[in-house]
């Protein structure tokens, strides 16, 4: 018996590197990828089924309490807005947010802020 062969065989027995077959590795990788795809499809099918069950339950609640779906409610609101502005040549005006209105309101609020920091006699003098 040759010592080289014994050492080589001992390495394999102790968990050393074995000769790798590239064809076998490629086949294992393909099997692994296919298993991952299969699991993903099963997961998607499971969640689609759960969502369908939830939607049936939601629709039952909507029917019971007379609630409309969001899309339907938004569509009706949009249609009402269009009907209101049907005779107008311009689009409907939007509400002006607070603080973006008249300049007088801003000036008053600035003046009030300044007055807070002035001493009492100066406040009296400026109020007159």
From TrEMBL:
Chain spans, region Disordered: 8-55, 76-107
Compositional bias (Basic and acidic residues): 9-55
GO MF assignments: syntaxin binding
GO annotation, cellular component aspect: cytosol; perikaryon; SNARE complex; terminal bouton
SUPFAM superfamilies given in the database record: SNARE fusion complex
GO term, biological process aspect, one: regulation of neurotransmitter secretion
InterPro entries reported for this sequence: Synaphin (IPR008849)
Sequence ranges of Low complexity compositional bias: 76-86
Chief location: cytoplasm
CDD domains in alphabetical order: Complexin_NTD_CPLX_I_II
Protein localization: Cytoplasm, Cytosol; Perikaryon; Presynapse
Keywords assigned by UniProt, alphabetized: Coiled coil, Cytoplasm, Exocytosis, Neurotransmitter transport, Synapse, Transport
Subunit structure: Binds to the SNARE core complex containing SNAP25, VAMP2 and STX1A.
Matches recorded under PANTHER family: COMPLEXIN, COMPLEXIN 2
Family membership noted in the UniProt record: Belongs to the complexin/synaphin family.
Protein name as it appears in the record: Complexin-1
Encoding gene, per UniProt annotation: CPLX1
